[in-house]
Amino acid sequence: MPIYVCSACGYEYNPTVGDPEGGIQPGTAFEDLPQDWVCPVCGATKDQFQSV
Hints:
- The protein is mainly β.
- The chain has strands at residues 4-6, 12-13, 49-51.
């Protein structure tokens, strides 16, 4: 699964790790994140992320 990077702050969403503090389990693909999920660092929305 690709890693997605926040274009606002550089945070990397790694599907292997998920976002445990945000309630996102490891193994959750970026596409499967809830529509209202935001960057845990800066609050950017999903549309501000790009795959690398």
